[in-house]
Write a structure and sequence with these properties.
By secondary structure, the chain is of the alpha/beta class. It is built from 3 helices and 6 strands; from the N terminus they run βββαβαβαβ. It has a single domain, classed as Transcription Regulator spoIIAA (2-Layer Sandwich). Helix 2 links the parallel strand 4 and strand 5.
């Protein structure tokens, strides 16, 4: 299965790296694109293909987990809506393939908005998140 990489070229678009070989899905940076649906539609398509891939012989993660890492400096409300759709797709992967999903939510320690959004998304998705505060000087 092919990986998906969107390396951010514009400040308003995050780096998105979806790797079927390592089972790491990463979203890092800022997200306030002009057309959020257009930006994240390929991600949703990839997640659907990934779910099928995991269900095929040779597609399993073995004893490993799928790691989903979110590390947003900023995101707009349209992105938070798309994150719900992405988490719906990830939850479907967990339910249908029985694979273990680990979600990491990285946030700047003093950013209550991003931290709070992570908590909301954790409750919404019913996936277990691990929260990682980042020291402001490390960012």
């Amino acid at each position: 299965m092919e990986n998906y990489l969107l390396d951010r070229k514009l400040d308003e678009i995050p780096k998105i790296s979806l790797n079927a070989g390592t089972h790491r899905l990463e979203f890092v940076g800022k997200s306030w694109p002009e057309n959020t649906v257009k930006l994240y539609a390929p991600v949703l398509d990839w997640l659907e293909r990934y779910k099928s891939y995991l269900g095929q012989p040779g597609g399993s993660v073995g004893s490993n987990s799928v790691l989903v890492k979110f590390e947003f400096e900023y995101l707009n409300s349209a992105t938070s809506v798309m994150l719900r759709r992405i988490l719906d797709a990830i939850k479907a992967i967990q339910v249908e393939t029985k694979v273990n999903i680990k979600v990491e939510w990285h946030y700047v320690e003093l950013d209550d908005d991003i931290f709070g959004l992570g908590r909301e998304l954790e409750m919404y998705s019913e996936l277990s998140f691990v929260f990682f505060p980042i020291q402001l000087e490390d960012y």
